[in-house]
Amino acid sequence: MLMEKFKNMGAKKYIDIVLFLILFLVPFFTSNFKTELVGRFIVYMIFAISLDILWGSAGLMNLGHAIFFGIGGYIMAISLASQEGVPVFMESFGLTRLPGVLRILESPIIAFFMGLIVPMIVALLLGYFIFTSKVKGVFFNIITLAFAALFELFVNNQQKYTGGANGISGISNIKIGGESLSITQLYYLVFGILILVYLFCIWLTKSRFGLIIKSVRENEARLQFLGFNPAAFKMVIFAISGMIAGLAGMLYIPMNSFISPDKVGVMLSTSVLVWLAVGGKGNLTGAMVGALIINILESSLSDSFGELWQLVLGVIMLVVVVFFPKGIIGTLIDFDIKLKARKNVLKAGEDYGIFRTTRFNR
FRET partner for 317 with CA separation of 20 to 30 A, picked from 86, 180, 246, 309? Predict the structure, then answer.
């Protein structure tokens, strides 16, 4: 029975199992440097998932998604940087203690919850003003892109509190029981959170709420005719997406020990769109695979091709998008569905032929 279920699994589930197995085994076969690098890629995979439930399920292509990643990241960065006193960049402005409301970030636990709640609230408020105004399509894209540019400018200008263009460095590692986590421990923490986020999003997209969100994408007018309020559902999925992006931003800090304004604005917001386009949106697996592949290519090509690595990467992405418009995983899923349909048709034909022969012999 178990083997039968395993055989009937779709290509997507096979890819998920193989992907998670490979990620689990990484620390056993690589150096601490490579483990830390892959851990950073896992953070980007979580970030890609956060956009996939918004763009892939609800059809809302957010061009400013890095805002939420950046909010979570800066909250955790300020918290960890202040564990041994006032951060250096604040001391240069004569501060002897975290100013005002930032003092609550001296507690990493409070900072963690703030890193979830603040991006969620920002996304909820932004969604309220956008969706209740019935902004759709390209206008939604332009507004979110503009917000990303404004937020990046804001972070740059608030040097006293964010480190400005120099970002925040000198960030302490996460400590549990007074002991700093090792690279391997930190890696498995991030890996475990990836699995939890993945399972949560699987449940969310298959729930009644997830089905309604997909209906918003397919035919919003008909959904409204049936008595639902599409704006409310879009606000909720926008808030959930922002919260997960904020979580990814917080995890990025201990894995990278540095954050700068380029992680809150247009650059990262457009990068995650490319990850989904390459991997395939609307199935979570494509988001993870796309983020992993592109970041591995960026790392390897920059070592092999020097200054030309971006050109080579651009050509590779262009080829994938042109020949696999549904992304790598989306194309594999389509092929698997067609193959199974063909097998079912052939099986049905064989059964019918046997039935006809048996009836004729009688």
Answer: 246
